Amino acid sequence: MKYTVGVDIGGTNTKIGIVDEEGKIIQKEIIKTLSIEGVENTLKRIWDKIQELVDKSKIDSTEVLGVGMGIPGPVKNKEIVGFFANFPWEKNINIAKLFKEISGKETKLENDVNVIALGEAKYGAGKGFLSSVTIAIGTGIGGGIFVDGKIISGFNGAGGEVGHMKLVKDGLLCGCGQKGCFEAYASATGIEREAISRLKVNKKNKLYEKLEGNIEKVEAKDIFDCAKEGDLFSIDIVDYEAEYLAMGIGNILNIINPEKIILAGGVSLAGDILLDRVKEKLKKYAMGVTLEENFSIEIGILGNDAGIYGASALIG
Question: Following DSSP, what letter does each residue of the chain receive, concatenated?
Fold first, then answer.
């Protein structure tokens, strides 16, 4: 039996799992990333934990083919990270080379959302399909494009950054510093910003009552929960979210024409109250041919394990 290791490195936590030949996670654990301690210390702690999990699984270390890693930032040639989002590390570090020197194992890297997309494509909601685009909707919007068995990383590792395509000329300010981005409207941050704006002028609704007037504390989940309870004010905000989500997805369909769109991240947990509206509004933004036959939009099924699965799939 041969095994691969998937490592999903986040700003706060790092998920590590050992995956067997059948695509099953046999051991997994979460450790603190502690990037402030420096790149080498972080990588050494990750390798120590991998060895611990290998021992716990009673696997001979020679059976481990390699280590795949997902990391927040653009990745070049599955080796070099252009810059690290939220990490105090230098630019253009060859993480694959560094980790191979520490572990002796083949190491490959990809952007964190790309490995989520690869995980869903290989083992999750996109399994068995040749093309899918995974859109991770949380504080921001990330994307991963899977076509003909490969993730499209782009020239400098920035391929798949669908959250920063422009939906509105000189529109709302995005976290990237530009204006009018998909992310500025359809992310959790975008929907919360819209809710706060509306709550300042309309306080006669279930959402305001739920927040007890503390409108700055609103979270996307609060909006969806109130909408599901029939609050018309919240339903209008969900319609706003669905409109921009449909516009962004429509652009993706027109450019890439995938068989499947997979939604991941916290906002995807809203379920049918959002998904049904997006599907209906898509007809305004996507060419009819992209919606024909077996095209579908689905919620990702791997949850927090998607990054482990996708990272492990980089090996082999």
Answer: --EEEEEEE-SSEEEEEEEETTS-EEEEEEEE--GGG-HHHHHHHHHHHHHHHHHHTT--GGGEEEEEEEESS-EETTTEES--TT----SSEEHHHHHHHHH-SEEEEEEHHHHHHHHHHHHSTTTT-SEEEEEEESSSEEEEEEETTEE---TTS-TT-GGGSBSSTT-SBPTTS-BSBHHHHHSHHHHHHHHHHHHTT---SHHHHHHTT-GGG--HHHHHHHHHTT-HHHHHHHHHHHHHHHHHHHHHHHHH--SEEEEESGGGGGTHHHHHHHHHHHHHHS-GGGGSTT-EEEE-SSGGGHHHHHHHTT--
Quick: pLDDT tens for 207-226: 999 999 999 999 999 999 99
- Using one digit for the tens of pLDDT, what is the confidence trace for 152-208? 999 988 899 999 999 999 999 998 899 999 999 999 999 999 999 999 999 999 999
